[in-house]
Specification:
It is a single chain. It contains four helices and three strands. The chain has about 150 residues and is mainly α. The chain folds into two domains: about 70 residues, no CATH class; about 70 residues. The protein has a three-stranded antiparallel β-sheet.
């Protein structure tokens, strides 16, 4: 059996993340594959070569390349908006949980006793808390960023 070819010293042989074959990386960068091999060997481009019996299988890390043509990438400002919306969804879910819990308390209240009046007041406070969350601009996480 033939020994696999080994890459030059200092070139990694096991990818640790998303990689792209050398040919694809060369096309995306508009460069000759030999130029990319020199850049990987010199440590100028993140990549490596997997040992194979016939020849090395070179690769480049996907995050070291520009986006694929036609792919849509979100600008950094959009990422912030997405996080803001995610926080608002969490706040709304918590408000809904409060409303559901208050409704259950209301259904469990015994209407014939003084205890029922206290339960109704507690339920009303629960509804008030939940509605206040709906009416508060933004989300509750903003209150911690004072």
């Amino acid at each position: 059996m033939t020994q696999p070819k080994q890459p030059p010293a200092g070139v990694e042989t096991t990818p640790l993340g998303d990689v792209v074959p050398l040919k694809v990386a060369a096309a995306r960068l508009g460069k000759d594959p030999r130029t990319l091999i020199r850049a990987i060997t010199a440590g100028e481009l993140r990549g490596g070569a997997m040992p194979r019996p016939e020849r090395l299988r070179w690769y480049v890390y996907a995050d070291a390349l520009p986006p694929e043509p036609g792919s849509v990438t979100a600008p950094p400002a959009v990422a912030g908006v997405v996080e803001e919306l995610r926080a608002q969804v969490v706040s709304l879910q918590e408000a809904n949980r409060l409303l559901i819990a208050a409704q259950q308390e209301l259904l469990d209240a015994d209407q014939s006793t003084h205890e029922a009046a206290e339960k109704y007041r507690a339920v009303a406070r629960g509804y008030l808390d939940a509605l206040a969350q709906f009416m508060t601009p933004g989300h509750l996480g903003e209150l911690a960023d004072l």
